[in-house]
Each structure stands twice: as structure tokens, then as C-alpha cells.
Amino acid sequence: MDGMDQADEGKVLREGESRREFLQKGVLAGGAIIGGYLLLGSSLHGLGSPDGASGTPSRKRRWTMLIDLRRCDGCGKCTDACRLEHNVPDGQEWMKVYTRTDNDGEFFLPRPCMHCENAPCIKVCPVNATFRNEDGLVVIDEQRCIGCRYCMAACPYDARYFNWSEPVEGDEILSPTHERGHEDHLRGVVEKCMFCAHRTAEGRLPACVAGCPMKAIYFGDANEDFLSNGPEKIRLSTVLATQEAFRWKEELGTEPRVYYLPARR
Amino acid sequence: MGKIVVTALEKRLMLPLVRSGRGFWIFAAALVAIIGWGAYAYSVQLREGLVVTGMRDRIFWGLYVSTFVFFIGISHAGTLVSAILRVTHAEWRKPITRLAEAITAFALVVGATMVIIDLGRPDRLQNVLLYGRIESPILWDFISISFYLAGSLLYLYLPLIPDLGTLRDKMPRRARIRRWLYSRLAARWRDTPEQRAHLGRAIAVMAVLIIPVAVSVHTVVSWIFGMTLRVGWQSTIFGPYFVVGAIFSGIATIIIVMAAVRRLFHLEKQILPVHFRNLGLMLLALDIALMYFTLSEYLTASYMGTSRDAFWLSLLASGPYAPMFWGMVFGGFLAPALILSITRARMVRWTVIAAVLANVGMWFERYLIIVPSMAAPQMPTEVATYWPTWVEWSILAAAVAGFTLLLVIFSKLFPVVSIWEVQEHVSALPKTVPATQEAIG
Question: Exposed, middle or buried by CB within 10 Å (0-12, 13-18, 19+), for A165?
Fold first, then answer.
């Protein structure tokens, strides 16, 4: 074959020539389409955006949660309040209370979505269905999600849930003036805690914070350095400086927006 | 044109295209029935949602994703045999290149379908094109697999052209639709030296281009897992580990398909024991490489034994996945290596047995990479369990049947052994046996 190749160099090849031209044009056109697609894609979503996967602190709000584990008795009222607020489908716990045991016995760890500054779920989403909104929250566009569940693989906190079946409509009716975070849910998409963005927009605390009988959960804007559990108000910077606050799985570098105060000190 | 002369080789290779026994129709009907059953299972899944699978929030990827990785792995068959052996001028490859290329293209089609079946919202697949984020490894996969599929189809088609010309000229007159199809596909092939030169160059270029694309494909498939923070997934060797496993299962698949075709189409004179011997040796080499990677992967995880690594390994070594894990190690990796190491066992039958063991082992391997990592808890909670449902098993069976059916249809439309390349090969040998010439049609 190679010998034949060389022998043919320089010959005029009508049919072959036009076919080769066609192929060359085809390759060029294909390359241009792919190149254009990549450029367009990256400038529209992600690469070009200043607020991609790695968070920048210059946002309007930085909603932050602080959970005092000394106060948490594991009653699960936060989970219930969340379920009611968002009509959370069966089998899901957007605010989940984990139980851990150490030398002094059991203690409890409530886990909302951590709304990580460096959110692994945002990084891996193929269609930009999970993204950071202007208040710094990690939210989901349920209309866009294709249900590949890659974000669930990426999340180190098991905070994401998939609607495996058609979610059953909840029948518990709240007061007519009360707008819920979620009424309906779609089958085949991923959902999770959204820090009750619909309530904070009205200046109200998230449902789990309001629903905690132990007043263990504080919530507020880190930009204003101010958190509240309802009756109390605290300065985040003071708590972080004076108490042994920690974040769950700090070593992973996800920069969660949820702090904990240890169960025992 | 004058009298049409059909050589014995052409007759042997064209006969399966025009003659099908009862056994063929029974086999094809069985495959269609299995696919039909799988389609029914999928319709149930579309109606009820993914709740009909065994997957839940903790173990959210299962049989579908394992099978996706497995079939994408098999697709490395064509690249290895037809591209790498072509580039290295291994002449013995010629009778088996076409099978390898067909396996590649069809395995890609089936593999890509498995991902779509796994989606919660397959109706929104177009969002990948509309809103695709290049930062997501899934998009890397999408681009890489698309390129590989396009390249593989082209690479399957190019070496077919001279044979299509032969078929156009020599198929029986009564096969009118066939002749029309072949004449369209043959693209005015007249077997001139110029055409041969151009075709040779095009094939040579494709052979080189397809290799990096193939390597990229299973590398980015591995990175879907490798880019996460999960135990057992976050590993730097995943790229090459997956590629080696892919070529391993690709070779095993060629051996199995080759044996079936040889028996069914009576190609004992075209597909020779030397092909099984050589591919068997390559399977052995890849098997050893794979065992090396497996050892590296699990030894580095276990030696210091961080608590999460230790727990995950205990699931594999002594937990619920132990039978599958040790079955993979001994049955899928070590047993084929032993069989293929014994010189006397390098016969067709034992090579095929080794290949079947290797492929079952590789499917286990894909499953074991995906499921136990999710079963191991990453939050303070219990081990998650997963058992596939009848829907998943049905769709897995349909995937295997679909892959087989595509090969069967291909083998009824095109010669499974490249006529012109084998003729070239035979005429290049120092001593040629005069071919008996007979006319058919």
C-alpha cells in the first residue's frame, strides 16, 4: 500500500481529487461546528461565568447556618417542619438527623444541604441544572435536570435525593397565605434542601430553624455577620472566634456554609 | 463485463449472505424476542419511573451504568485489532479486522443506549446539547464517545468499500435490493490503482487517528468516577486501569465472536488456529497488566487502611460482595491467565473458554467498581443494599441480545471476513495455491 501511495504522487486524479476535496471540506466544517459549539458552550455556561463552581465571596448574601449540637436532642422536628414546608416526597429527608455515638453516649447531627462554596455537585452537572444563585445558594432547576444523578455521586453529604417514582401529592394544607417552598415534585429529577429561599426572601427564618423546639439552629447572612435562631441573635464572627465551631468534612475542601458547635465541650 | 468469475474465497464468504438455514431464523427470532421483552421492561420503567429498578438514593447507579462501562470497554476491540495491529503491520490480523471493527461500532451503540435508559428524564436528553457544561466529565464522555462512534463507523466502512464493489458485481441477479444497496454503498469503486492508493491512505490515517480517541473514551468514562470524592473511585490510576480492562474485554469478545462465526459460517480455512493463538497471547498480556493494576489499586487502598478504605475493602473481601470479588479475581483474571499460559492449551476451545471467563470477570469488575463504593456509607449510617429487579435484568439481557443481533444482521449483509484484504494477504504469500474458480448466480 505504501509503495502505491508514493507512485501516485503528482498524478491528476479527477474523481479521487473531488472526493478528497469533499472530505477536506467536511472535516473543516465538522471541526468548525464542534469548535464553535465548545466556545459558545463554555462562554454561555460555566467557564466564563465569574460565579462558577468555586464560590467568590463578593455576593449579595452569604446565607449561613450554625447548629449547636449541645442543644440538639435528636427529636426530628426540623425534619418534620421541612417535610411540611416542601411537601417532601416519601423516603426523602432534606433535613436529616444522623445519630453518632462517642465515649459519652449518643449525640445527633442534623444535616441540611451544606450549600458548599466549592460545591462538587455544581462542578459535575452536565447541563447546569444545579447552580449557585445570586444569594449564594446551591439550587436546582427541576425543569432542566436530566436525572443522571451525577450530582448525587459528587455530594459527600448524601444531601441529594432522586424522585424514583411519581411523587404523591401531600394533603396537609397550610394557611392560605402561607406559600410553600415546593408544592409539586417532578418524577425523575434530583431535589434537595434550598435553605428555604422562598422564606428568607420574605425575611423569615427557614422552616427547620423555626421548627426546632430546642432553638439549636441559627441562620443568617454572613455578610451581615448576624445569625438568629428566633429569640436569640448572635454574631457569627464572635462564635467562630471564641467557640470550637467546625464544619463537616472540612478536609474535603468543599467549604460548607453550615457550621456546628460540638456536642460536648 | 463478460462472464462473472467468482473465486472460491468469494463464494465461501458470500454464501452466508444469500443462504440462511432454519437454525439462523430460530436464533434471530429468539434474539428479537429477548429484545422485545427488554423493550416491554423499559416501557414499564418509563411508565412507573426508575422506582421499578433496585436503585435508591444511596445506591443510585447499578446494572445500567455497569453495563454501559462494560460495553464501552468492549468497543476497544476494533481499535486494538484493526488499528494497532494495522499500524504495526501485523499481517495475520487481516481475516479478523472486520469482525473487530463491527464489534466496536455495535458495542458503542449498545453502551450509549444503556446511559439513556439510566436517565431519569430521557425526554430531556437534548439539554446536553442545549446547555452542556464542558466542565462536567459527562460532557467529556458525550464528546469522546460521539467522536469514537463516528470514527468507528467510518473505519468500519472504509475497508468495506472494495468488498462492496465485489458484492455489487457478483451477487446473484435475483437479489435486486441487495445489489442496489451494495452499488450505492460501493461509491463507484472500480478497483483502480488510484482508488486503492487513496483508500489505503484513508485507512492508514484513520488507523492512527482512532487510537487516541479510543484511549480517551475509556479514560473519560473512568473519570466520571475518578473525579468524585467517593471511596474506591477517587483514584489516579483509574484512566489506564479502565483502558487496560477495556482492551482485555475487547479481545475476549473478538475471540468469542470469531469462534461463533468460524463454526456457523464454516470459515475454518479463513479463521485459523493461529488467530486464536495470537489473540490468546494478547489476552494473556492484557490479563497480566490488568492484574497488576488491580493489585496496585487494592494494595494501596488497604496498606495504611484509612477507616473508609478499610471498610470499603471489607465489603469486597469478606462482605456481601466477596463471592463476586473473589470470583472475579480467581475465575475472571487468574483462571484465563493459567489457561493461556499452558502452551498445549492454546487451542481454539480453551482460548474461547478463557475469553468467556475473562468477559464474565470484566462485567463483574465493572459492577464491583460501581456498586460497593456507594454501598459503603459516607455519612454515619448503615451499609446500603442493592439488588437489581427483573426490569434491570431484562434490559441487561436485551442489551446483550441487541448487540448480538446487530452482529447477526451485519453478518447477513456484509462478508464478516474482508475478501480483498485476505486475497491481498494470500497473494502476498511466497507460494500461492491456484484458486479454483466457479461461477454462482
Answer: middle
So what's the pLDDT on residue B344?
A: 72
CB interface of B with A, residues 26-85, below 8 Å: 48-51, 53, 55-58, 60-61
Distance CA B246, CA B253 (A): 10
Q: Is residue B33 in some structural domain? A: yes
Residues 6+ away with beta carbon under 8 Å from A231: A215
Cβ contact (<8 Å) for A188 and B60? no
If pLDDT is split at 50, 70 and 90, which confidence band does A111 have? very high
Q: What is the 3-state secondary structure (H, E, C) of B326-362?
A: HHHHHHHHHHHHHHHHCHHHCCHHHHHHHHHHHHHHH
Record the pTM: 0.88
Residue of B168, B200, B173, B169 lying closest to B184 (CA atoms):
B168
pLDDT in tens, B69-127: 999 999 998 888 888 898 888 999 999 999 999 999 999 999 999 999 999 999 999 99
- φ, ψ of residue A63 to 5 degrees: the values are -60, 135
Q: Would the pLDDT of A41 be above 80?
A: no
Residues 184-203 of B with CB under 8 A from A: 188, 193-198, 200-202
Supply A123's cell numbers. Answer: 462542578
What fold is seen in the domain A63-170+179-261?
A: Alpha-Beta Plaits (3.30.70)
Q: Characterize the bridge pairing of strands A63-68 and A258-261.
A: parallel
The better pLDDT of the pair A95, A265 is held by: A95
**pLDDT > 70? residue A233:** yes
Residue A20 with chain B: CB contacts under 8 Å: 198
Asked if B135 is an interface residue toward chain A (Cβ–Cβ < 8 A), one would say yes
How confident is the model over B377-389, as a mean pLDDT? 96
**Residue A205 in contact with residue A230, Cβ under 8 Å?**
yes
**Would you say residue B295 lies in a domain?**
no
How far is the C-alpha of A94 from the C-alpha of A100, rounded, in Å? 19
Confidence class for position B153, pLDDT limits 50, 70, 90:
very high
The grid cell for B64 is: 445500567
Q: Please, are residues B385 and B320 in contact by the beta-carbon 8 Å criterion?
A: yes
State pLDDT tens for residues B37-75: 999 999 999 999 999 999 999 999 999 999 999 999 999
Q: How far is CA B299 from CA B97, B148, B304, B318, B356, in A?
A: 37, 33, 9, 16, 27
Give contacts of A34 with chain B, Cβ < 8 Å: 143
The answer to whether residue B357 is domain-embedded is no
Instruction: Please report the ipTM that was assigned to this predicted complex.
Output: 0.91
Nearest chain B residue to A111 by CA distance is B379
Helices (H) and strands (E) in chain A, counts: 8, 11
Element (H, E) at A105: strand A105-111
- Into how many domains does chain B fold? 1
Name the more confident of A2 and A166. Answer: A166
Q: How far apart are CA B69 and CA B401, in angstroms?
A: 17
Residue B1 lies in a domain: no
* DSSP letter, residue A13: -
CA distance linking residue B354 with residue A188, whole number of Å: 41
Cell numbers at B338, concatenated: 493459567
Percent of chain B with pLDDT over 70: 95
The region of weakest confidence among A38-52, A83-97, B174-188 is: A38-52
pLDDT digits (tens, 9 = 90+) for B323-361: 999 999 999 999 999 999 997 766 899 999 999 999 999
Half-sphere exposure of B106 (CA within 13 A, CB side): 23
Instruction: Give the range of the structural domain holding residue B90, as residue numbers without chain letter.
Output: 20-228+243-284+389-426
